[in-house]
Amino acid sequence: MPVDSLSQARYLIAMTPNYTLDATGLLCPLPVLKLRKRLKSLSIGDVILLRADDPAAVIDVPHFCAESGHELISTGEVDGVQTYLIRKTV
């Protein structure tokens, strides 16, 4: 496998969530509280996809990740729902 393909494969594997947490319909602080609770049960290196539609999550989720030491891999939006890909690091 060429180096570029191997690197791309590793990247895609790292971006594939092990778990999904749907926090749509929940308001601050519930999306972050549910995320924190779920992360406690995961293994280091696991990746979780959080879905939320609370406007405050745009601030709360990155802040939570920075303060707790988890890696915020990416953020996005799909059909009006915010998506956050987070890797447990501690």
First and last CA, distance: 33 Å
Largest sheet: 4 strands, mixed
Outline type: globular
> How does CATH name the architecture?
2-Layer Sandwich
CATH superfamily caption: TusA-like domain
Q: Percent of residues in beta strands?
A: 25-35%
Got a strand count? 4
Helix tally equals: 3
Radius of gyration equals 14 Å
Average residue pLDDT? 89
User: Any low-confidence stretches, pLDDT <50, length ≥5?
Assistant: none
Structural class: alpha+beta
Arrangement of strands in the largest sheet: 1-2-4-3
The helix content is 40-55%
The ordered string of helix (H) and strand (E) elements is: HEHEHEE
The level 1 CATH classification is: Alpha Beta
Task: Write down the domain tally.
Answer: 1
In CATH, the topology is named Translation Initiation Factor IF3
Produce a short descriptive summary.
With 90 residues, the chain is of the alpha+beta class. The protein has helices spanning 3-15, 30-40, 57-68, and strands at 19-22, 47-52, 71-78, 81-87.
Could you walk me through the main structural features you see in this protein, from its secondary elements to its overall organization?
The structure is a single chain. The chain is of the alpha+beta class. It has a single domain, classed as TusA-like domain (Translation Initiation Factor IF3, 2-Layer Sandwich). The protein has three helices and four strands.
